[in-house]
Amino acid sequence: MTHDSIHLTPSEWQVMEFLWAHGPATGRQAADALGEKTGWSRSTTLTLLRRLAGKGAVAEVPGAGRKTFRPLVGREEAVLQETEDFLGRVYHGSLSLMVSALTQKQALPQEEIDALYAILQEMEGEHHDGMDP
Q1: Which residues of the chain have pLDDT under 70?
Q2: How far apart are CA 116 and CA 23, in angstroms?
Q3: What pLDDT digit, counting tens, does each position of 76-85 carry?
Q4: For 50-62, how does the pLDDT look when each residue is reduced to its tens digit (9 = 90+)?
Q5: What whole-number distance in Å separates Cα of residue 35 and Cα of residue 42?
Q6: What distance in Å separates the CA atoms of residue 106 and residue 92, rounded to the nearest whole number?
Q7: Angstrom distances, CA of residue 74 to CA of 4, 23, 89
């Protein structure tokens, strides 16, 4: 299974956020931490861990004794995949349409405008660097 095909539900995101922040963790550690944060029962957390293992997002650490899970997908990789899926599904792949929609309801602070402008300038430079003279 490739990581490109992994889609996480909001509940699965919470489990992954825990694993990304705390590294390999036992099912009990995850259940205790997420139970405090979300109110989930131990069985709910363990079910989510099994579901994530089935998707290829986490794996059991071999030889760890207790069921210990580690993420197989990095946070940045998961964020990028979710962003690409959202952009394609909602904005038909148009980043400019998404930015336009977001800025219609809420003004961007100058700091964010400057950051976006810097990203665009960098992308433009890369585009020109890749062109033949």
Answers
A1: 1-5, 64, 129-133
A2: 32
A3: 999 999 999 9
A4: 999 999 999 999 8
A5: 7
A6: 22
A7: 12, 11, 23
The amino acid that residue 55 corresponds to is K
HEC per residue, the chain: CCHHHCCCCHHHHHHHHHHHHHCCEEHHHHHHHHHHHHCCCHHHHHHHHHHHHHHCCEEECCCCCCCEEEECCCHHHHHHHHHHHHHHHHHCCCHHHHHHHHHHHCCCCHHHHHHHHHHHHHHHHHHHHCCCC
Instruction: Say whether pTM exceeds 0.85.
Output: no
The pair phi, psi for residue 63, each rounded to 5°, is 75, 15
Residue whose tokens read 């998404």? 98
